[in-house]
Amino acid sequence: MSRFFSEKYKELEPYVPGEQPRERKFIKLNTNESPFPPSPLAQRMAREEAGILQLYSDPSCRSLVLAAANCLGVEENQVIFTNGSDDILNFAFMAFSDAGHPVVFPDITYGFYPVFAKLNNIPYETIPLREDFTINVEDYIGIGKNIFIANPNAPTGIALPLCDIERIVASNPDNVVVIDEAYVDFGGESAIGLIDKYKNLLVTQTFSKSRSLAGARLGMGFACSELIQDLETVRYSTNPYNINRMTMAAGVGALTDKEYFIECTSKIRATRERISKKLKEMGFFMTESRSNFIFAAHPAISGLDTYLKLKDMGILVRHFETPRLKNYNRITVGSDAEMDALCDALAEILKAPNPAERTDL
Q1: Is residue 96 a contact partner of residue 286, using CB atoms and an 8 Å limit?
Q2: Cβ contact 85:182 at 8 Å
Q3: Pair 160, 179: CB distance under 8 Å
Q4: What is the pLDDT along the chain (361 residues), one digit of tens a residue?
Q5: What's this model's pTM, rounded to 2 decimal places?
Q6: N or C: less crowded end of the chain, CB within 10 Å?
Q7: Where do the structural domains in the chain lie, given as residue ranges?
Q8: CATH architecture of 18-35+259-351
Q9: Can you name the CATH fold of 40-256?
Q10: Of all helices (H) and strands (E), which one includes residue 15?
């Protein structure tokens, strides 16, 4: 770092995104992108905006707000759109937390939470997951701090039922509870329906996974109008033109084309179940994922060796070096052809003589 870098960020450890290699072509199962292109309607609408990019986009995101209200059954003043869901998560840290309002979240969860806390100088505490990677709901009941929970969680894919989410929200009426639903469309239960009942609930979602717009960078949040106004204050104080014209149009198309959304998410869920069954037959064990990825480990080979061998064979998965996760890999559910290639590669790896046997099981 340079000598000009601010002391307040000196110890900041940035979030590390998944690999985006350019040196060769890989089957890319490491960043939870959709294997399907954007909706044809989303593509057409984005193209139509390309010819007027000399004009600023609408800072109120009016077209997106109307589409979300129609698609998801919320009021127009109960939704906000941001440049990816990471933006709204950061806004939530900024708007609702400070030295007097600390934050808690699980010790194993989305890696951006501690980054946002440190970036904004917010005290935070992590609560360990159980040994089976599930959240103990009782740990969050009446805790009296702002709460961030990814549901389904990352990188495990495990989901809490809506009744447990409601218990957490109801028991912390004086604190904001943020439910990060990046993967909810693959088998989780959304908490959007609770925002009228609880004024302390913020639900965030993304267009990157289930709506095939990872490259467009679009996220949305749902809450009572008062919380949304708080977030809009932060948004207008940073970048009111945060959604570009083409992304806004693509988002409207993605929300409007419900049939395509249902078709793609259904295919991903079916492929996830089919491949999970095959991996179990090969000796893998995994969490009960309700996301568009599988979190798996094998007793005969370490997670790192599996990751490296797959990479040598042209397949990328996501490996984490943290102690409790190091024997697992997170595997994005790709196309059927990509997942069959993965299974073939894993079978070949497991048949190799003297695999790096694990001793910790």
Answers
A1: no
A2: yes
A3: no
A4: 888 888 888 888 888 887 777 766 899 999 999 999 999 999 999 999 999 999 999 999 999 999 999 999 999 999 999 999 999 999 999 999 999 999 999 999 999 999 999 999 999 999 999 999 999 999 999 999 999 999 999 999 999 999 999 999 999 999 999 999 999 999 999 999 999 999 999 999 999 999 999 999 999 999 999 999 999 999 999 999 999 999 999 999 999 999 999 999 999 999 999 999 999 999 999 999 999 999 999 999 999 999 999 999 999 999 999 999 999 999 999 999 999 999 999 999 999 865 555 445 4
A5: 0.94
A6: N
A7: 18-35+259-351, 40-256
A8: Alpha-Beta Complex (3.90)
A9: Aspartate Aminotransferase; domain 2 (3.40.640)
A10: none
Structure tokens belonging to residue 80: 């906000």
- Which amino acid is present at 219? G
In sequence order, what are the beta bridge partners of 293?
332
Q: Is the dihedral of CA 245, 249, 254, 256 positive or negative?
A: positive
Cα Rg, the chain, nearest whole Å: 21
Peptide bond connecting 106 to the previous residue in cis, omega within 30 degrees of 0 = no
